[in-house]
Amino acid sequence: MSTLEGKRRKWVAGVAAVAAVGAVSAPLLWSGSGDRADAKGTALTGPAGTRPQADFDNDGRADQVSGSPNAEVSGTRQAGYLAVTYGSDRPGAGRHQVLGQGSEGVPGKPSSGAGFGGHSTARDFDGDGYTDLAVTSSVGRKSTVIVLWGSKAGLHGGTYLKDAAGEVTTAVGGDFDGDKKADLVTGFGPKGLLKGPFTRDGTAAGTGAVPEPHVDDKEGEEIPNPSLEAAGDLNGDHTDDLVTLSSNETDDNTNHVVWASRYLQGGKDGFAQPAKSHIPGNGAATVGDVDDDGYGDLVVSRRGEQRDCGALTVVYGTSHGPGPRRTTLTKGSPDVPGQASGACDYTALDAGDVDGDGHADVLGGADLDSPGKEQSGSATLVRGSRNGLTGEGAQRFRGKSFSSEEGSDDSFGLSVRLADQDGDGKSDLAIGHPGRDDNAGAVYALPGAEEKLPTEEAVTLSPKDFGLSGSLTKLGYTAPDLLN
């Protein structure tokens, strides 16, 4: 079973138990951080080599997306919906919008098990200067992708993508052929790549193949069912690349899991897989230019053998893609706060430029980190520098950093996001805390800063801020564009 599949099963199992909430209520799914899009086309990267900014109304401030695919909508169980928080002068304090199938302009109607919003990715898919949002939805055993269109007023109206029907579980945005148009990868196979720009009737400019990587374990046995893990420009050619993940439990009754990742290089002639991979096995990944050398770096949360708990590794980009140079930080590294516990691995990662110095910084969420408390969770911010990722200036957050009501099994840090929500040139933090207030959930939005981030300036978002009600909503539960 792949890591992505495992994460989705954990997520479905956790939320299904609370899907029958009478009123619509959702966990925040953070989409996008980066530079403002061109008036024509899509920015290739955001600040410090991160993904483009999700800016649905094109006002120069990042917007946030919240989704609850297992929520009950109008009496229909597990129909799902999305909530949007638009950028403002204060992170997290902008206007709100709730969207689902059945909303004005959104195709389809609420249906049981559709899971609308189970995954989403933000790019300017039609090239009009406004970020759009591609959202997955399922009916029975089939699934599809709906694009919600950006406009001056924000997200408005939507269209089914004609070439995305089938078994779409993820949707990954990027410019994978180097034509400066946003594309969409929906899986492996001869038509796994949908090329942009897309028309408003849901037609792609073309399709392309996404090769399924061949990965063997140490015994030469193939590891099946690869999943998409991260996207970004890892070789400096202004074309996005893909990172895939394969994992498989061994058959020796040890419950040992084999982890392996591969790099698919994007280009005008399609994807190519280099013969050698320098990417270690991992369970979460993000892309950003940590050392500001012009090449996107791959930051991963290590899994498998020969690692320390909470290991965060940067595989530095080169003109040939991820290279042999690495930096690894753990919770035992100098200046990195926290202590190694039984489940301190990062399960969510994002990159942005928190201090505005041109180096990508990394925010990692470890929702099972539990020194002294069962699954209480944590999030850690580490900084980039000209020498790479460093523990200097690192900062750790817990639920009690923002609330006195931290409790067991609250999964603080299950979702994280770095995005410039207030337009000041610094990425702001968003951290999900789905177990707060008896699983009603919360998300904390905190402004970026050159020095220590002041938690007293955080904005706390609750279901009531979206005009929603009901307990057990687990706001802050999932993060679709993170692919973890």
From TrEMBL:
GO terms for molecular function: hydrolase activity. Keywords: Glycoprotein, Hydrolase, Membrane, Repeat, Signal, Transmembrane, Transmembrane helix. InterPro entries: FG-GAP, Int_alpha_beta-p, Integrin_alpha_N. Residues 30-74, 92-126, 196-239, 314-344, 358-412 are annotated as: Disordered. Residues 401-412 have a biased composition (Low complexity). It holds the Pfam family FG-GAP. Signal peptide: none annotated. Residues 65-74 have a biased composition (Polar residues). PANTHER family: GLYCOSYLPHOSPHATIDYLINOSITOL PHOSPHOLIPASE D, PHOSPHATIDYLINOSITOL-GLYCAN-SPECIFIC PHOSPHOLIPASE D. This is VCBS repeat-containing protein.
